[in-house]
Amino acid sequence: MTDKKQISEELKDVDMSIFDDDDDAMEDDINQVDDHLANVHLQTPERPSFQPKFFFTLPSDIYIRYNSFANIDIMKKEIERLQPIKIDIGAVYSVKPKDKKTVNEKVFKPLEKELVFDIDMTDYDEIRTCCSGGDICHKCWEFMTIAIKVIDVSLREDFGFKHLLWVYSGRRGVHCWVSDERARKLDNESRKAIVGFLEIIKGGAEMSRKVKLPHILHPSLTRSLEIVKPYFGSLVLDTQGVLDTPDEWNKVLDFINDTGKNKNNNNTWYHK
Amino acid sequence: MLKQKSTRTNRFTAATNRHQRVYVENGNTNLPSEYGSRLNFYSKAPPAEITIEEFETYALDRLQVLKTLETASLRNKHGPEFKKQVDQALEKHLPLKSNLSQSPNLLEERRKDHISHFVLRLAYCRSEDLRAWFLRQECALFKYRFEQESLEEKKNFVAGLNLSWSILDQSEKKEILDKLAACTVWKAGKTAQAAREMVHNETYFKVDFEKVPDLINRRAVYIAQGKAYVPMSEQVSIVMDEFRATLSTALEATSKALPRMEEDERLKPILLNVEKQYIGKDYGVSTTSGGSVRASDVDQLVRQHAPLCMSNMHTSLRADKHLRHGGRMQYGLFLKAIGLSIEEALIFWRTAFTNHTDDKFQKEYSYNIRHNYGLEGRRVSYAAYNCMKIISGNPPSTGDHHGCPFRHFSQGNLESKLYSERLGAVQVNEIMNLVRDRHYQVACTRYFEVTHSQYGEKSKIDTVEHPNQYYEASKRLAKESQDDSGDAMEVDR
C-alpha cells in the first residue's frame, strides 16, 4: 500500500494542478491545459456550439452526465459548486445536451474524441511474480515504464502524433491522452487499427504462448525490441525471477512448447 | 505478336521519376465512360429510366447473388468450391463479362449491375443491421470481381477513381528501402536480398494511415509520421477500404432520404418484399423468445444445450466469479436471445459476481447490462453475435474467455477440452483435423452431432452459423424426444 501512496504522491501534480484555485495562475494554467488537454476545444471561436462533454461523479455516487460549458469561467464556477470527486472527459457531440432530448437518438453522435490508451497492471498478471490483481509495487511498475516508452515513441514516430499526455490512472495503471486534431477526428476503424498495430499479444486465457512473430521484424517492432532488450536481464530474470522456482520456470516452458509435446525440457531445467 | 522482354520502365515508375500522378485513358471507346470498366464504385446513380418490373427483377437477381456469396463464404472461404458456387450464381443472375470478352451485351450487363445495386441500397438502408449486412456482401462481391481483373484493368479502374494517392518518389524510397523490405519479407521469399529487389521494382503509394486501416491493423506496411507506404500489390486493400467507406456513407445518406422516396406508392411494397427475402435470422432486434428463462435455469440450460463457446464462458464465470468485457458481451447477448429478461439478467450476473459488493456491481456492471437490452444510451437492443462475428471479430487477449474455442484455443487446450467432454479419440481427431484446416464452424457442427448422437439421424443439422441456432436446435431435439416418449424425461449427457 505504501508504494501505491508513494507513486500517487509523485504523480499527483501532473493532472490535478489545473484545478488549483489560484486566479493569478489561471492564465498559466490555461496555457498549460491548452498544450495538453481536451480544453483546447473551449478556445476555438469558430464552433461555439461544439463543446466537449464532462461527466461528474459526486460524493454519494451521484453521476451527472453530458455537461458542457461555454467558457472556462463557467466551468470553473460549476466545478466549485458541485465539488465532484471524479471528472471524466467525454467526446464533442453533434448536439448540445439541452437539445439532446428533442432530437432523434441516432442524430446524437460523437464528432470528436481524444484517442486514449489505458494500460492496466493486471494485464501483466501472467508474467509478474511480485504482485497480482489490484496490488502494484516498484518491482512490477517497471513493466509500465517500458510500456510507456514503447507506445510513446510509436505514437510519435509511426503515427506522427505530438500532443500526448501520460497520467497515472489513480489505481494500478496509466492513461495516455492523445489530443492532436487528427487523433480527435479518427473514426472507429482507424482507432481499432492503431491498437491492432501496437498489439503483439494474441490469445486468451486458453492460449499459453501468445506472442508469435516472424524472424525478420517490422521496423516498429525492431525499434521496440531495442527499447525492451536492456531490461530483460535486470527486470525479468533478476527482479521478477522467472527462472528461480519450478512453478515459475514451468510457465516459461509453457510459452516455449504449446503443443503439449516435449516435456523433456522440464527435467533438464531442474537439474541445472 | 511476339512477346518481348520489355526494356521500358512501367508508366508508374516513369511518372514517379517525373513527380507526376498517372491518369490512364480508357482504351475501349464503344462504351460510355461510366461503364468503361466492369468494376463500379457506384458513386453516381444510374441515369436511365427503367420499368417497375425491371426495378423488381434486377433487385431480386442481385439479391440471389449476394445470398449465395454469403452462404458460400461461410462454408468455404477461399477454395475452388467457393469460386464455383459464386460463378454459377453470377452467370445465372448477374453476368458481368470483362472488356476482353468483347461480348455484345457488355452495356446491358453493366447497366443491370448498376441499377440493381441502387435498388438494393433503397431496400437495405432502413436499419443499421440491414445496412451492415448489405455493406458486407457488396464489399465481398466487389473484392471478388476486383481480384479477377487483369493488372491492366485494375490500374485503369483505380486511376479513373481519382483517389489522389501520391506516388513515392525514388529518392525517398531509397532512404527507407530497408524498412520497406522488412515489411515484405514474408511475400518476397525468405531472403532479405529478394525483398529489397522486390521493393526496388515495385511502385509504392504514400497515403494517410486512416485510409488503410486493414493494413495498419495487420502491421503489413511501413508507416512513419502518419503516412503509410503501400505497395501496388496491396492495392486491393486500399481500394476495398475506399469502396467500403464510399458505400457506407452513401447508405446513411440514402436512409435519411428514404421517407421521401417511399412516397411513391409503387416502390414501397417492392422494397419491403425484397427486404423480407433474406438477411438471416438475427436473434436480436425481433427476438420472440418472450423472456421466459429465469436466472436459476441458466446453469442447466447452458450445460445441456449451449455451444462450446458459451459453456466455456459459463464455466469460467462460475470459477472466477467474474467475466471480462468481451465475455460479458458475447455471453450476455446469447443469454438475452435465449429468453433471459432484463430483470432475470441482472439477478443472474449479480449472483454470478459474488465477490463484488452491491455498490460496485451497480456502478460498474448494471449499466452495461441495461445497455445491451436497449434501456440506456442509444437505446438499441443489441443482437446476439453470430459465428462469423465471434470468429473474426474482437479476438481474446490475456485473461479473456470469449471467442470461438475452435478458433481461439491452442490445439493442446482444445483437445483436452474435447476429451473432458467425454468424446472418443476418433471423434476428437476428426474435429481437430477440421480445425487445422480452419473449418471452425464445421468443427462446431460436428461437435453438435457427436454430443447429440442419442438422437441418431436428427443430430445432423445445417452448419452452425449462430450460437443461438445451435442452442435452439439442441432444445428442439430434446423437446421432440420428450413429446415422442410421452413422459418428462430430460436426457442427461
TrEMBL record, chain A:
Belongs to the eukaryotic-type primase small subunit family. The keyword Nucleotidyltransferase applies. The keyword Metal-binding applies. GO terms for cellular component: alpha DNA polymerase:primase complex. One of its GO terms (molecular function) is metal ion binding. CDD domains: AE_Prim_S. GO terms for biological process: DNA replication, synthesis of primer. This is DNA primase small subunit. Keywords: DNA replication, DNA-directed RNA polymerase, Metal-binding, Nucleotidyltransferase, Primosome, Transcription, Transferase.
From TrEMBL, chain B:
It comes from the Eukaryota. Residues 472-493 are annotated as: Disordered. Keywords: 4Fe-4S, DNA replication, DNA-binding, Iron, Iron-sulfur, Metal-binding, Primosome. Residues 473-482 have a biased composition (Basic and acidic residues). InterPro entries: DNA_primase_C, DNA_primase_lsu_euk, DNA_primase_lsu_euk/arc. GO terms for molecular function: 4 iron, 4 sulfur cluster binding; DNA binding; metal ion binding. Its cofactor is [4Fe-4S] cluster. Residues 299-471 form the DNA primase large subunit C-terminal domain. It holds the Pfam family DNA_primase_lrg_N. DNA primase is the polymerase that synthesizes small RNA primers for the Okazaki fragments made during discontinuous DNA replication. Belongs to the eukaryotic-type primase large subunit family. This is DNA primase large subunit. It comes from Circinella minor. The lineage of its organism: Eukaryota, Fungi, Fungi incertae sedis, Mucoromycota, Mucoromycotina.
